[in-house]
Specification:
Blueprint lengths: L2 E3 L6 E3 L25 E5 L5 E5 L7 H6 L49 H28 L1 H17 L4 E3 L1 E6 L3 E2 L2 E2 L11 E4 H6 L4 E19 L4 H6 L2 E2 L1 E6 L6 E4 L6 E4 L3 E11 L2 E2 L11 E4 L1 E8 L6
Antiparallel strand pairs: 1-2, 3-4, 5-18, 6-10, 7-8, 9-17, 10-14, 10-15, 10-18, 11-16, 12-13, 12-15
Length: about 325
């Protein structure tokens, strides 16, 4: 086989090789001589880059050579750069010129994430705001003293008062401008009776008399609402007159409250409120006309019951 002589180290190299197996020097296929001075060679590393080194230094003696650690990659393991097989005596790959005794280069660590100027500014502002909030909190706790405590107590007291659950207020007395017909007396509008309160509506309107109902309580109460109850049976409800327009007032009322009731049987809510009162008075101003149901119709106005809902009024100031 035709061979050629390495122009760097003088080793005999096969004619079809492009790199010296001893020093890794490159053979130009065009036959041009290298421009580098003798003694300097270029070796290809495992990552494809070139490394320049010198052959001017003498190889170490036997003892020193034996003390050097063995190469991390042997020729028989294959070239770490191109994977080509090489004779065990080769120090450089005869295919690509890479150093066979060079271990794979370590992978560079991933660079740390760098924050931008905008992110750093946002973090600084957030930190400043946190300091201000903490300082304000400490100032209120330490410097506020008793005033903060009293304010909290007052707020708690107000909350308890406004969140009381309304219950039905007992009316100890019921007084009406018309006593009622027979057993359908005025007192039947109070809770606990099964009978109704009825009056002759035609006679009352002909006499232009006010029809009022006054309920009295045992102690001052805060009124939340009123439940007006008509006859529940739909036929009997329509056969009688039914209250329509009413006005309500209480002991602490500045003016009367007016409302028009629905023409429906059963209970309906009247949103009347009073803060502190011993009584309420309801005036019936108009009525729905009685209808003929099953050949019957009556001239009476009928009310099943009136319930007042609320809770004990707060103690008066002073």
């Amino acid at each position: 086989m035709v061979s050629q002589t390495c122009h760097q180290c003088g080793a005999s190299v096969a004619a079809d090789e492009q790199f010296c197996p001893e020093c890794g020097s490159y053979f130009d296929p065009m036959g041009r001589k290298p421009s580098r001075p003798p003694g300097d060679v270029i070796s290809v590393s495992s990552d494809g880059t070139y490394e320049e080194f010198s052959l001017g230094d003498q190889p170490p003696d036997g003892d020193e050579a034996e003390s050097e650690p063995p190469p991390t990659v042997s020729a028989s393991d294959g070239c770490p750069s191109c994977g080509a097989s090489n004779p065990p005596s080769n120090r450089h790959c005869q295919e690509c010129g890479a150093r066979l005794s060079q271990a794979p280069l370590p992978t560079a660590p991933r660079p740390a994430v760098q924050t931008t100027a905008g992110v750093r500014a946002a973090l600084a502002i957030s930190g400043l705001l946190l300091v201000v909030v903490v300082f304000a909190f400490l100032f209120n706790v330490i410097g506020g003293g008793g005033s903060a405590t009293s304010t909290t107590a007052a707020a708690t007291s107000t909350t308890k008062q406004t969140t009381q659950v309304a219950v039905q207020i007992e009316a100890i007395d019921a007084v009406c401008s018309h006593e009622g017909i027979g057993s359908f007396a005025c007192d039947n509008v109070r809770s606990g009776t099964d009978d109704e309160y009825q009056i002759n509506w035609d006679e009352a309107t002909d006499a232009e008399e006010d029809i009022t109902i006054k309920l009295t309580f045992r102690s001052p109460m805060t009124v939340n609402n009123i439940i007006w109850k008509g006859i529940e049976d739909p036929n009997r409800f329509k056969q009688n007159y039914r209250a329509r327009g009413i006005t309500v007032k209480a002991a602490d009322s500045i003016r009367e409250y007016s409302e028009e009731l629905d023409d429906t049987p059963g209970a309906q809510d009247v949103r009347f409120a009073a803060i502190r009162t011993n009584w309420i008075e309801i005036t019936i101003n108009s009525a729905y006309i009685a209808e003929v149901i099953k050949d019957n119709s009556y001239s009476d106005l009928a009310i099943n019951e009136i319930e007042v809902w609320g809770y004990d009024a707060p103690s008066s100031a002073g």
